[in-house]
Structures are given as C-alpha cells and as structure tokens.
Design goal:
binds pyridoxal-5'-phosphate; 387 residues; four-stranded antiparallel sheet; Aspartate Aminotransferase, domain 1; alpha/beta
Amino acid sequence: MTKVKPSIKADRFEESVIREMTRLANQYKAINLAQGFPDFSAPDFLKEYAKEFIDRDYNQYAITWGTRTIRHALSKKYKEFYNLDYDPEKEITVCCGSTECMISTMLGIVNPGDEVIVIEPFYENYGPDAIISDAKPVYLQLTGPDFLITREKLDKVFNKKTKAIIINSPHNPTGKVFSESELNLIADYCKKYDVIAITDEIYEHIVYKGKHIPIASLDGMKDRTVTISGVSKTFSVTGWRVGYILAPENITKGIRKIHDFLTVGAPAPLQEACAKAISESNEYYSKLKNFYKERKDFFYNALKHIGFKCIEPHGAYYIMCKFDNFGFDDDIKFTEYLIKEIGVAVVPGSSFFSDGNPEKSKYIRFCFCKKMETLENAIRRLRKLNS
Ligand SMILES: Cc1ncc(COP(=O)(O)O)c(C=O)c1O
C-alpha cells in the first residue's frame, strides 16, 4: 500500500454534503429532496435537438470556448433580455456547467492571498472554490428572514485586499432575489474598492416575486462583472454540463486559458442543441416560472401547515426552514432522522454556513424541483412528524 496521502489542499475541504445526502437517500429509499435536480423529463424540443446533432455527427471537440452558435445565441439573448452587449467572439466562454465556470473564473482572476467575499449562507461550492484558487474567503453574514445587504455589513468585509465578491441571485439556499437597491449598494463598494463582481445567475428564469436584475446591467458594472449562468436549471438538464460566462475581454482572456486546460470544452452536440433552444425560448421561460410557482405555493404552504418555520422563496427552487419545534436543535441529527425514520432526504443547513456562524445548525433545506406527486408523497411522510 502506498503511503501517499491526499494533497494538503484536498484535505482542507470535505466531500459535498449535498451529494452525500443523495447517497443516503438511495441507501434508505428516502424521497430525495436534497440535491437540486428534477425528477421529471427535460423538454421534448431540447431532447430532439440533441438527437439531431448527434445524428449529424457533431462528435468532436468544439471550439474550446464554445461553439459559435451558442456564443452568438447568448449574445443575442443578453441583448434582448437585459440590454447587455457581449461580443460573442471575445467576451463569452462556455464551460462544463456553471460549476466549472466558477472555478475557471476564480483561477483566472485570483492571486494567492487575495480576499474574496462570499455572501453567507452560500451555495456549498464557493468555499472549496476559494481554497482551490488560494483565495482567502471573507464571509458576509446575512441573517434571516430577510437576508438584507446593508452598508454596515459591506463596510465590515470590503478592504484594499478584496479582489472579488461572489453574488448568487436568485439565491440558493434562501430563495432570495436581491433587490436593485441592494445590488446598487454592492456595486458602489465594488467601484470604490476596484473589486470584481462574480455573479452566479443560474436561477435567472425562476423568479416568483420581484425581478431578476443582473448586476452587470447596473451603472459602471459591466466592465467589472463576471456573469455566470447555464442550462442545468432552466432546461432541467443538470447532467448535460453546459454553463457559460459573460465577462469583459481582459478578464475573459485569463478565464479562457484556465478553462481550456481544465476541461477543453463542454459536450459539442449538447452545446449545439442548447444554442437552438436559447435562440427560441422566450415563451418557454414564462411557462417554467409558472410551473415552479405552482410547486412553490403547494410545498411552502404544506410545510408551514406541518409546523416548519419556512422562509418563502422569491426565486430558485429551495425552501429553508427552521425545525426547533420538532424537538431537535441540531440540523445534522434532524436530517438523519428525516432520512431514516420519515423517509425524506433534505440538506442540513450547516453546509451553507461557515464555522462559527450562530445560524449554522438552525436550518434544513428542501428542494422542490420535483413532480407534484413526489412532493405530495413527501408531505404525506412528513406529516408523521406530528403523530
Ligand atoms: C447556485 C448554484 N450555482 C451552481 C450550481 C451548479 O450548476 P451547474 O449544474 O451548471 O454546474 C447550482 C446547483 O445546484 C447552484 O445551486
């Protein structure tokens, strides 16, 4: 047996809790409301496009920063939707999901020791992303139920060493959609301290209340913003691994180099299929919003009725809840109980908070990107908590 150990860097973070919950859900045959992937079919039109491009033998490497078709489709979409001009040749990069977009961006802009502000609670990848890229994560702690960004909070985290701030709106896990005034406040600090905004907008089309505003569209921000999004959530194809980055040319140059040597490129026929879907999906986006609103309304009300203290999401497809009235005060223990005894898998809230945050063990997160019948079955099981 070799004595070689994992690297010091790999030892500095744990395996994904969310994906571990999926493993446990399978082991205990629990309904999986942990990991954010749909249990229903992807849109037929998108599947037909994928078949078409595989049949037409789009089997070889695409251009490393994305097929011409998808970059041009994205450029047109960002102009139409957000009035943002991105040059498809120099400012758009396609990666293997927004997960790779984020790590390529971090490796493309951060130097060892640079501070990167992470808004907390946070999507669990951002912590390891900071470690992998040798950044120093600085947590901007928001508190429920409003998770409001204030000048006071920004004053505490911005300084001369700050290189970037990671924003995620609509937000996983809280469902918050950051308001224009909050984004303007962040923008003011980014301009004052010459900081890059890295914004994960993967849930841009899943908004129930308020409006999704890309921070890049605010005054003076386009030149200092890296916008990340992708098809995983919008088209219910988390396994296709197609995400994209829109950023000014000087920033894109570094990101593209990192992306090229990390993965070469995202799947070529799927990029072609997504390009076609992105070009013609205006009607689809509003249907998607209604589809998830129906699930959100049903699931949020049913959880509240059972006794969970839920934060009503304004976007994305998660519900964060407090659970102290069920006789538990620790999210990990409660999650284990839910999986093993109740038959519903969720994510313990601690995976969205840094150590030492007083909110760390108080929440669990449900995801509701599921068939109505899956959600109804989960509610039936969760009612056992009251018996
Ligand atoms: C905020 C956020 N960003 C990124 C991702 C991953 O996206 P992708 O499948 O494009 O890598 C997720 C998945 O749950 C997410 O919630």
